[in-house]
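Customer escalation, tier 2.

The customer says the design service returned an amino acid string that "doesn't look like it belongs to this structure." They asked us to rerun it and document both sides in this ticket. The original structure tokens are below, unchanged.
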């Protein structure tokens, strides 16, 4: 189980890194499909860690009961 959690954590970090790189690329893109994706990517860059933190917090609270 510990190995599975580590693999899941590393894949999540890799996916988040790809998301940040896409945000940087779309910030400099003037044409193409990534040109209009900047607001959505910025929202996802901020909202994803917040949602994951809230899920962890709720898990800890509910686990104690």
């Amino acid at each position: 189980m510990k190995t599975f959690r580590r693999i899941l954590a590393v894949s999540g970090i890799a996916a988040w890194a790809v998301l940040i790189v896409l945000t940087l690329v779309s910030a400099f893109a003037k044409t193409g499909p990534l040109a209009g994706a900047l607001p959505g990517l910025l929202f996802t860059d901020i909202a994803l860690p917040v949602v994951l933190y809230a899920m962890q917090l709720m898990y800890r609270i509910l686990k104690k009961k």
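Tier 2 assessment: The sequence is consistent with the input. Residues 1 and 27 are 39 Å apart (CA to CA). DSSP finds two helices and no strands in the chain. Sent an explanation to the customer and offered a walkthrough call.
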